[in-house]
């Protein structure tokens, strides 16, 4: 993916299409994978990473916590904290601190009328091929702001499931297979088509179909 930078195991610098292609900083591999799912979720209109810092008290000491991300979708704000499953287990040495941190975040959201959610690798990496496919989709969106044949590809699709191979064959006189894949990635990103990206790699056998009759604009 272009302009991506990775320093060690815990720092990613990426470009975010949903935030006007500005640089997005992420502080763990799990936060990176979560960002990939957010960027490729058509329901999310935009987001802000590290949006807010609040304070809380633990063992008589004042502590700070920063939400990992705030998502804006369907007119609501969802504050998200990303954690590894092991951090939520009582045997973890930081369990008490993590629980108090999450309690403080949830209470702040309750008092301010916001939604709160804790996301772990179980939900973020739920499908075998989900992250790999989403990275491909996101790379297409970042590298190509508006595919040349996206309208032609969109018009060839409806609510019937069809393989990429069938679509490429039908449009072979109009555009290349590369352009078909690129356009379908964009249409998925926009929420116009869908596919089972969790269970198989996006290749010629992948089936895609329209969710409803929508404009690509």
TrEMBL record:
It comes from the Bacteria. Residues 42-121 form the TnsA endonuclease N-terminal domain. InterPro entries: TnsA_N. This is TnsA endonuclease N-terminal domain-containing protein.
């Amino acid at each position: 993916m272009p302009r991506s930078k990775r320093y060690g195991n815990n720092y990613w610098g990426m470009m975010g299409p949903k935030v006007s292609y500005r640089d997005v900083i992420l502080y763990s591999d799990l936060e990176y994978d979560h960002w990939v799912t957010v960027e490729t979720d058509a329901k999310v209109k935009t987001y802000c990473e590290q949006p807010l810092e609040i304070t809380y008290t633990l063992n008589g000491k004042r502590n700070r916590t920063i939400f990992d991300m705030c998502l804006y979708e369907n007119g609501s704000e969802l504050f998200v904290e990303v954690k590894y499953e092991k951090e939520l287990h009582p045997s973890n040495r930081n369990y008490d601190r993590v629980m108090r941190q999450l309690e403080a975040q949830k209470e702040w959201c309750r008092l301010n009328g916001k939604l709160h959610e804790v996301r772990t690798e179980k939900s973020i990496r739920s499908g075998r091929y989900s992250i790999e496919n989403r990275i491909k989709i996101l790379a297409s969106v970042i590298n190509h702001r508006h595919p040349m044949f996206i309208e032609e590809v969109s018009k060839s699709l409806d609510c019937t499931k069809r393989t990429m191979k069938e679509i490429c064959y039908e449009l072979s006189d109009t555009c290349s297979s590369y352009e078909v894949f690129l356009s379908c990635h964009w249409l998925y990103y926009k929420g116009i088509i869908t596919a089972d990206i969790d269970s198989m790699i996006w290749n010629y056998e992948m089936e895609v179909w329209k969710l409803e009759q929508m404009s690509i604009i």
